[in-house]
């Protein structure tokens, strides 16, 4: 079905498809153009790799989950050929590559996968832009940089469960991740208690997984950050600009039970039942989301600690970001309850709406300037949070305006999904009619060939009939000759019978004559030898 070539979470996003330079020297050019520390960038892009209708809201969900106040988030549909302009790549702070039901090894069947790999390789060579990918995004980053992706080496055709990811020392030694792990210690595998410092370098994360492929060989220079029983390369990094995660920190168990479990045809009934139980367990997604947010903003730089203390997330702010993201996926306003930490929540609970007003909901999303919890929206770059010195009236007005923006964003997403569904239905009808027409044309062509063959056969029969007509007169003469021959044969047969009778009479006469001679000889012999000699 026809789709718009470009959408954006912020106005002014560039149109995809602009000619791209063959090589990159932008790092040197930027150093020459603007000496000194590079200014902070607030431009991000979601590289959307999923075209299934059921996942229409996940790009907005990622922007809400990973975004901050004052940032611009763009939406590029990679499967439709949309990618950021490489000439402007230095203006981006980070790129987020989403998951997908496609296989990264099918780039020959889907050209956009190969184009995305080449784009990612050029961005990483360019440097200075954070690139994060989850699941399919993790795999496509690995292959783009020289790694290898293959079927799950664990032997399972499809992994759908909560997996235990063991973090390596290289992961826990990175400053930005160490800060995030300290702020949001993993507790899902320790019964709610944070790990002690003596085991911090052997930290484990409980992460939800859904994959039939995984990274089996890292790119050159990449560092392994985590591994599990079902994936040898669960997490890896390349320098300070690349972070890849096989799991789905942006999803919760309820969403995966609704949108993935029913459609995982590779699962047996026993595996499906085990997945339903596993996906309801508690996860460490808060810690992993904190790590990703710290990575995207580069808190590993010289001023990282100071910036992190100023801009750091809190547990409450991350949970509010998570609720806003879940709402985009669930086609419902954010929940007041913390379903992120309640994996046993039912789908009905997860779909329930706010009990409070839009103003109180906006206040919940934006409470506290220090926590910086407002989410980027589709209309424009979010205004900075009001300081504590601003009047209560202006603050309430901004909160109400932000709530209106979020409501408008949700309404636009719902309307877009409805229109897309209708267009897809019409497109499906046209596709079906086209298939029927093609089948009918093929049948007509087949019938035409059959009729043509019958015509040739009939013409051949006519020619043979014309050639056989003179032979029919000859057949009459032959039949007459046959009658004469039959009469002659009958006469010959009668003559033969007569001759046979005569021969029998001759044989009888000869026999009688011989008998008479024998008797005469006998009489002569009995009358004496002299008489005999005389």
Describe the structure.
With 534 residues, this protein is α/β, with parallel strands linked by helices. 49% of the residues lie in helices and 12% in strands. The chain is built from 15 helices and twelve strands. The chain has helices spanning 26-33, 58-66, 111-126, 136-144, 169-172, 175-183, 253-259, 269-278, 285-296, 304-311, 315-330, 347-351, 358-366, 392-526, 529-533, and strands at residues 7-8, 43-48, 72-77, 94-97, 130-134, 148-151, 159-167, 204-211, 213-217, 223-227, 235-238, 242-245. Strands 1-3-2-4-5-12-11-10-7-8 form a ten-stranded mixed sheet, with helices on both faces. A two-stranded antiparallel ribbon has the order 6-9. A hairpin with a 7-residue loop joins β10 and β11. α13 (358-366) crosses α14 (392-526). The termini are far apart. 35% of the residues are buried. The model is unreliable at 1-38, 195-201 and 332-391 (pLDDT under 50).
